[in-house]
Amino acid sequence: AMKKGETFRLGVLRLIKTEAKNKEIDLMHPLSEPDFFAVLSKMVNQRKDSMEQFTKGGRADLAQSEEKEIVIVQEYLPKPLTEAEVVSLIAAAIQKTGAQGPKDMGLVMKEVKAVTTGRVDGKTLSEKVKAALGSS
C-alpha cells in the first residue's frame, strides 16, 4: 500500500496493526490467530456502528469512509460461514453440551464461538442459538 501510494489503505492497515499491538499488550502475550480475528471482528463491528450513526446524522461522506474501511479489514478475516454451516455447528454444540433450553445458551455459545471466531457475527450467532434452543 505504501509503495502504491494508497494512503487510505495504508491508514487502515496501520490501524489494524495498532489495534493488534494494543490487544497483545492487554493480554501480555503474543496474539494467537483467534485473538487476531477477534480484534478484526471488533473493528468491523465498530465501523458498522459508526456507519449507522453517521448515516442517521446525515454524514454520508463519513459513512462511506467507514464502509471502505470495513471492506479493507474484512480482507484479512477468514471467509464467513454459510447459514447451513452455522446451523450444523449449533446443532453439534447442542448435542455435545446436552443443552436443554434457553438457560443453556451460554454453554452452546461458548462451544460454537471457539470454532467460529471471526467467521460469523456474534449477534447473528446469538439469534440462531436462541432460536435453536427455543425449539429443542
Q: In DSSP terms, counting alpha (H) and pi (I) runs of 4 or more, how many helices?
A: 6
Radius of gyration: 18 Å
Shape: globular
Structural class: mainly alpha
Low-confidence stretches: none
Question: What does this 3D model show about the protein?
Answer:
The protein has 136 residues and is an all-alpha fold. The protein has six helices and no strands. The chain is globular and about 55 Å long.
Give the SSE layout.
Blueprint: H1 7-27, H2 33-56, H3 60-74, H4 83-97, H5 105-116, H6 122-135
Helix pairs in contact: 1-2, 2-3, 4-5, 4-6, 5-6
Protein traits:
globular; 136 residues; mainly alpha
In short:
By secondary structure, this protein is mainly α.
